[in-house]
Amino acid sequence: xxxxxxxxNPQVTIQTIQKYNFHFQKKFGxxxxxxxxxxxxxLAAAQITEKDTVVEIGPGIGTLTQYLAExxxxxxxxxxxxxxxxxxxxxxxxxxxxTVVNQDIxxxxxxxxxxxxxxxxxxxxxxxxxxxxxxxxxxxxGVPAESITVMIQKEVAERMAxxxxxxxxxxxxxxxxxxxxxxxxxxxxxxxxxxxxAVGSAVIRLTRREAPPVEVRDxxxxxxxxRASFNERRKTLVNSLRNEPSLGxxxxxxxxxxxxxxxxxxxxxxxxNLEQFARLSDLLSF
Length: 286
What we know:
By secondary structure, the protein is an alpha/beta fold. It is about 35% helix and about 15% strand. It is built from twelve helices and nine strands. It has helices at about 10-20, 35-45, 65-70, 85-90, 110-115, 130-140, 155-160, 170-180, 220-230, 235-240, 250-260, 275-285; strands at about 30-35, 55, 75-80, 100, 120-125, 145-155, 180-190, 195, 200-210. The strands form two sheets. A seven-stranded mixed beta sheet has the order 4-3-2-5-6-9-7, sandwiched between helices. Strand 2, helix 3 and strand 3 (about 75-80) form a beta-alpha-beta unit. Helix 6 (about 130-140) packs parallel to helix 8 (about 170-180) and helix 9 (about 220-230) crosses helix 12. The chain starts with 9 loop residues before the first helix and ends with a helix.
């Protein structure tokens, strides 16, 4: 299909919406891409080839899907909104390598869908309201994905890629970077969508690590420790951890662990990297 007839052409999107009398639903966070330059940036960041199986989350009316179908070997488009199914059947009718799956991605078994033993690349223009649950669900759930390339709220993308010591560095940064290497591929202004969102967006690629970058005795405990460390950013790490009842830590134990690591008792959580949190977790979890 030539680009003028694709949904990345705003006129084609408008015609399609009007043809089916489609109404955007806030509960699904629907904002459709109408810029082919942005779509090409997503494809380039995701490094899609004809050998790849792609799982697209939330295809909408099929804008990005049309490009994915031309670049990949196989595309599974997972769409939760039933009213979009007849539209997708129309807009994707000439692509035989696309399968539309009417499911909630949070309840979808991707391994079963693509076939046991196979891997995929995940690509999505994600609804902002559910970005973090979807991404963390994919990373923590052991989904057989080589990479996750997503369009999300710019602020959230920057937090995922943030380095220690910065104002936006936090528990999300550490959680994402434990499972994946981050690459911020592009910033995307609101006028690239219909309807326009209130905030800027960004494309980020998360390349899954073969193994975590640090060794830790108790992974779950480490992430409890990390979350507690950022609950009260202005407080010292000692006070933040001491104030979290579920950890059951006293000042002396925390200060002794920090001292063994060569860190001051007045250090704040935002200055520690993943390796230091793993070490602190091991010292405090026995």
